[in-house]
Amino acid sequence: xxxxxxxxxxxxxxxxxxxxxxxxxxxxxxxxxxxxxxxxxxxxxxxxxxxxxxxxxxxxxxxxxxxxxxxxxxxxxxxxxxxxxxxxxxxxxxxxxxxxxxxxxxxxxxxxxxxxxxxxxxxxxxxxxxxxxxxxxxxxxxxxxxxxxxxxxxxxxxxxxxxxxxxxxxxxxxxxxxxxxxxxxxxxxxxxxxxxxxxxxxxxxxxxxxxxxxxxxxxxxxxxxxxxxxxxxxxxxxxxxxxxxxxxxxxxxxxxxxxxxxxx
Length: 264
Known about the structure:
Elements: E1 2-7, E2 22-23, E3 26-27, H1 28-36, E4 44-50, H2 56-64, E5 69-72, H3 77-88, E6 92-97, H4 105-118, E7 122-124, E8 139-142, H5 143-152, H6 156-160, H7 164-168, E9 175-177, H8 194-207, H9 216-225, H10 240-263
C-alpha cells in the first residue's frame, strides 16, 4: 500500500490559520485534498495534525468532508508521521504538507513511479537540483526507512521536518532525485505569507471555474500570460521554515557548547 500523509496545523507562525483560509469559498486545505485525491498511485490519504486544541477546528472541517484524520505531537512531526504509518503498515509513505494548494497530482504520480521503478529508499523532487516550483514538493520513503529515521533521528530539525535525516545520511539510504525537464524552481506556489495566499487565490480565480483539474502546466501558462502574478510573492525565499529551524538549532548547539566550555 502507498499511504499519503498530509501534515497540517493551524499554528503557523507566519500566517496563522492559513490551512482554513478560503480559496474560492472553500478552506485551502480542502482545495489541496481535492487535488491529492486525483493522484492515481495513492491508495490511502490521512491528514496528520496535532493534538493541540488549536487544531480542533481543522479536524472538524476535514472530517465533515470525509477526510481521514490522525492526531499526534505538535512539534515532533516525525513521530506524528510514524505513528500514523505504524498502524496502517504501508510499503511506502508519501509526505505532503498542507501549504501546497497548487499541488499537481500528476507530479505526485511521477515521483511515486520514479521511486518505485528506481528501487529507492527515499525519493524527492526537491532534493538536489531544484526544478519544480516551490509548493509542488513530493517525498516518498519506504516505511522501514521511516521507522529507522524515527528511531535514530535526534536533531530538532530532523524531528520537526520529518525527512532531513535521510539526506543528512546519504551513506545509509538509496536516495532518488526526480527532476522536471523545465527548470521552474524560480516560481513560488507555496503558502507561508499573506502574499502567497493572494497569489494562490488569483490562480484559482483564473483557472478553476473553467477547469477544476488544472495542472502545473496551466499555472505556468497563466503566469507567462500575466507575469505580474509572479511579482505578488517574489520577495520570499524557498524553504524559509527549514532554514529558520537550522539557524535556531545551530544557536542552541553553540550555546550548549559555550556552557560546557565555561563549566570545564
